[in-house]
């Protein structure tokens, strides 16, 4: 798909609308509906994510080289589903930091081999838009802010995940996480140097972005506490819950006690 075509711009408009409205609605109209909405979004992300693999199988394009769920956006999708359903602290942090870096970058510069109205256009943007929306909803809408040093924790997890994926690339001959070569279409990697130096450049840039996101969430958390007249050490209650803290889903109302070569070019 051509980047910044009408179809791509439509997807970006949907992303901005979904993320913005989710934040606004959760903050302005808190209530039990937030839990139901979060879980519906989790189901939507799961449908788009799994739908891509189903399409691979139906089309006969699934291969171990291109189609294993090893891209970072696959990990983001799984983290977002868990975070939306359980509000687990680590899952929320992974969704926030990965969603607003890797997934957002993938939505802005998609390496998508099938144009609109291919089924892959809809599956791709469903789970990418869903993950970014989840990050915005949970952190800025529900007030489930990352814990201190969360950026460093997520960075360490990312390095460990990249190490595992790199081994998988060697074993399968694949290019998961673009560790062997840059994507076909234009992306941020194009300005980060040749292989293998762009991998180190990406790590440095990634850490910088994570620390910026940590600073942003910390600032918003402080402003929320100040606006609510709470003590600096207290965590503000999330809209739609009653005294919930990160990793404590039991207190939420309503809560119980990619294709072969085509897929390689799309993620």
Structure description:
It is a single chain. With 267 residues, the protein is an all-alpha fold. It has one domain (6-264). The chain has helices at 6-28, 33-59, 72-86, 89-108, 119-141, 150-172, 197-228, 261-264.
Order of helices and strands: HHHHHHHH
**Mean residue pLDDT:** 87
Oligomer: single chain
Termini distance?
A: 12 Å
Would you kindly provide a brief summary of this structure?
It is built from 8 helices and no strands. It is mainly α. The chain has one domain.
Which helices and strands occur, and which strands form pairs?
Elements: H1 6-28, H2 33-59, H3 72-86, H4 89-108, H5 119-141, H6 150-172, H7 197-228, H8 261-264
Write out key terms for the chains shown.
about 270 residues; mainly alpha; globular
